[in-house]
Amino acid sequence: MASELFNASGGAMLNKSYKYRWLIAELVLRDLRLRYRKSVLGFAWTLLNPLLFMTIYTLVFSVYLRIAIPHYALFLLCGLIPYNWLSTALSLGATAVVDGRMYVGKTLFPIEALLIVPVLSTGLNFALSLPMLFALAYAMHVHLGLALIALLPVIAIEWLIIQALVILFATFNVFYRDVQQIVVYFVTILLYISPILYTREMVPRRFGFLITWNPLAPLVTSYQDILYRGLWPDQHALIFAAIFGIVLFGVAYRVFVHYAESFTQYL
Amino acid sequence: MRDAIRVLNLTKRFRFAAVPKRATVKDLVIRTIRLERGLSVVDALNDVSFSIEPGSMLGVIGRNGSGKTTLMRILAGILRPDVGEVRVEGAITPLLALGAGFHPDLTGRENARIQLLSLGLSRTHVNAFMDDVISFSEIGEFADAPLHTYSSGMMMRLAFSVAVCIDPDVLLVDEVLSVGDEAFATKCLTFIAGFRERGKTVVLVTHDLEELAKWCDVAMWLDEGTVAAFGDPQAVITAYRAGRAG
In a 10 Å sphere around its CB, with 0-12 CB exposed, 13-18 middle and 19+ buried, how is residue A258 labelled? Predict the structure, then answer.
């Protein structure tokens, strides 16, 4: 059933993405150019953001609170960098349709492109900060072997979940602008309930459901397994995340198609 | 010959939420408790049928709210009909609202690029079209100024140039021509005349009955979502004037 749901919506989205690939490429590049225009450090900000938080969290959790995770800084980065993709994509994506209102309802401009672009442009930033993570892992003598291949499905599943969330948030934000406020809290809560600052083993059993039912948890753990522990990620957890992503995407795209025609009345 | 546009029993309904657009949480809670579905249905178009041949120019008239814009959006493929069939042969470019598809912070050139790309063209094609678009629009050095510095006339010039440069088969124009100066409006209409000679089709929404009589070879009067008159422009104008008076 999950695959049926995905075939219909995933197919429609892929068709549009292919048909309008030139438009999407242009908008992604413009997005990146605008973000770094008139900024001295430019792209370096993408690397500085997780490094800054890594430093402050290391100070608080490793030095002050004496959390017992070796190479805590690297551990943090393995979670913070993928988390950053999600949080920047969601905060940009939630307002995508509202910000692009001049394209909605009066032209043939595909609204799907507005939803795809923020996920891709932040994803490109994410991809560009991965080499730094590889270099740090290598410097810390993490065994980086064939398991690196497993990053590809992990990234694909994360992309799917982020895209689905962006479609949902951007759609509902047209009707209730509260959504763009809620997103801020949503991503903050997600940071603290996902095993980014601590390992999943440290979570008391009675709060275990927060990890079990959090689709970001297996993704973060997989990044840590590959780049921090030098292991293959846990397949079962990843399969759960993949199924979650597929179903969420199918639902999100249907919700979007259902409401897209009434966007113009609310923009 | 195959009809350029064929519309059969087209009906389009809009469902409006009865709650105000700026609903507060209180409104929503009350609405939920009372189990109000709160949707009022309006028939924007009701059982509309017509067809036109390639090379013709259809002028659509009618009061505000008579369904002209909805019809144009459906012909363009932006909205889907609830009932009925709509067939348009070939590539369509819509020119439906002033400033539609233009981002105020981007330059004219950047906006033109994005509009062309949003029609599904490749980067190579778009690059090839750009010089023609800018020179036809006669906006000169404003091409590289942000769009919020444009007058409405300049916006219309740019939009028209983008719409015609890709040489569509059907051009949909909703009133926007009226904002340009006379010289450019004449340039547009002369262009449209040549365009029709090549077998291309135009649908024009207008309030200017003189323009309609002068340029269109077929006319339609839409009244409250239904076709009140269709056919020879003079006859439709006469019916429209009589209907409006009575």
Answer: exposed
Report the CATH number at residue B224: 3.40.50.300
| Of residues B21, B114, B120, nearest to A26 (C-beta) | B114
Residue B119 structure tokens: 């029609």
In terms of residues, how long is chain A? Answer: 267
Domain coverage including residue B223:
5-245
Mean pLDDT on B126-139: 93
Q: Which residue in chain B is spatially nearest to A19 when comparing CA positions?
A: B120
CB spacing of A108 vs B103 below 8 angstroms: no
Count of CB atoms situated within 10 Å of the CB of B174: 23
Q: What is the largest CA-CA distance in chain B?
A: 62
The answer, yes or no, to whether residue B38 has pLDDT greater than 70, is: no
> What phi, psi does B3 have (nearest 5°)?
-65, 145
Provide the number of structural domains found in chain B.
1
Closest listed residue to residue A77, CA positions, set A201, A220, A184: A220
How many Å apart are CA B179 and CA A168, to the nearest integer? 38
Question: What are B12's strand-pairing partners?
Answer: B45
Per-residue model confidence as pLDDT tens digits over A42-62: 888 888 888 999 999 999 999
Reduced to 3 DSSP states, what percent helix, strand and coil does chain A have, rounded to the nearest 5?
A: 80, 0, 20
Residue B166 neighbours by CB under 8 Å, 6+ apart: B91, B93, B116, B119, B121, B129
pTM of the model: 0.89
Alpha-carbon dihedral angle through residues B226, B229, B230, B233, given to the nearest 10 degrees: -140
* B120 vs A20, A25, A103: nearest CB: A20
CB B2 within 8 A of CB B30: no
Instruction: Answer yes or no: is pLDDT of A266 > 80.
Output: yes
Number of residues that this document lists for chain B:
246
Complex ipTM value: 0.84
B78 contacts in chain A (CB < 8 Å): 105-108
Contacts of A106 in chain B (CB under 8 A): 73, 78, 94, 96-97, 100-101
Q: Which one of B92, B96, B117 has the shortest CB-CB distance to A23?
A: B117
Interface test with chain B among A16, A34, A102, by most B beta carbons within 10 Å: A102
A108 to B73: CB separation less than 8 angstroms, yes or no: no
Chain B residues with CB-CB distance to A262 below 8 A = 15
Look at residue B186 in the predicted model and tell me its pLDDT.
Answer: 84
